[in-house]
Amino acid sequence: MRRSRGAFASRLAAISFVGVLALAGCAKDTGDGGDNASGGGQGQPCELADPPAAPQGSESNTEENDGGDVDASDLKVGLAFDVGGRGDASFNDAAAAGVDRAEEELGVADSKETTAAATESEDAKMSRLRQMATDGFNPVIAVGFAYAESVKKVAPQFPDTQFAIVDESLDGDNVTSLVFAEEQGSFLAGVAAAYKSENCHVGFVGGVNTPLIQKFEAGFIQGAKAAAPDIEIERDYLTPAGDLSGFNDPNKGNVKAAGQLNSGADVLFHAAGASGKGVFQAAKSKDALAIGVDSDQYKDKTLADTKDVIMTSMIKEVDVAVFDFIKAMAADDLDSLPERFDLAVNGVGYSTSGGKVDDITEQLDGYKQAIIEGDIKVSDKPE
């Protein structure tokens, strides 16, 4: 918590308290089914709460650090993708973009990519990491929490190799954790959804019901409820924990999204990897709006046929984190990395491509600043 702002801070605390109550009352554990958070959607726009004031001269776009004079030409980068791999238009593509940028700006001359299968064993993941380390790739970057156990076992076997893992906090002398405040960025997605819903009725589609994806759900619900306490919210997961196919099944994403739209939702937020393509298709078929995740999905060429429904994306700067990790390793300065990529360091945020949220950026930046200053506390759990 930073400086107090008297009555204004009290009002913001009240807004945050409303969000927490909403989480407790509405965001029940859904498994992979479709429990709904009941609310006041009556076929008309939401009655909106007064937003926090935006900071003077606020900017919604994140700023990137360039490579400076760092030379990474001696590094051989191994990149172990999660399910879906390069081309998923989401999480894996963001990690790949970080390596691509390191090749262009830092001079990385050699890299290797491999991709996990939805049903592969832990031994297969460990074998992938061991092979990269044995072949001299250093660093080895594991994309996703599914690699947690493998990194725990393989990293100690190669003490001279630096490992990084995205989305999991691990201890180890040669392991760097690249973790994010997904709940904070998702809070802003929830606010945007409440402002843009014509029915005061929105939806969340999660890929796999894990603690990580529940962070997206928790933030989205709290943000929507902070902006519009009576909003109605649908929630579905495509698969239960352990079944990673939920991140690579656009057809299932389409079906779940269509069900939410048929129930009256008109803005959908997905945290479902490549399955989000199906969410966008469903939104387009119903003339609804959708919110992307991880990268600015409006700009993704593989989503060109549905980009007009993407009103914003919850940006998770996986590409920046991967690039910064490679840069820090080349400079022998891993301690320079933040412990968590949150709103304060522009590690998460929202996109403005397409212009659909241009009229509410002041409100979004007001909520963003309130979170950064600690006036609004965002829960990372749906309850």
UniProtKB/TrEMBL annotation:
Residue spans of biased composition, Acidic residues class: 61-71
GO cellular component: plasma membrane
CDD domains linked to this entry: PBP1_PrnA-like
Residue ranges annotated for the ABC transporter substrate-binding protein PnrA-like domain, each copy included: 80-380
Cross-referenced InterPro entries: BMP_lipoprotein (IPR050957), Peripla_BP_I (IPR028082), PnrA-like (IPR003760)
Membrane topology (UniProt): Lipid-anchor
Stretches the record annotates as Disordered: 32-71
Location in the cell: Cell membrane
PROSITE patterns recorded: PROKAR_LIPOPROTEIN
First and last residue of the signal peptide: 1-24
Domain of life: Bacteria
Name of one Pfam family that matches: Bmp
Extent of Gly residues compositional bias: 33-43
Keywords: Cell membrane, Lipoprotein, Membrane, Signal
Family recorded in the similarity comment: Belongs to the BMP lipoprotein family.
Protein name (Swiss-Prot/TrEMBL): Nucleoside-binding protein
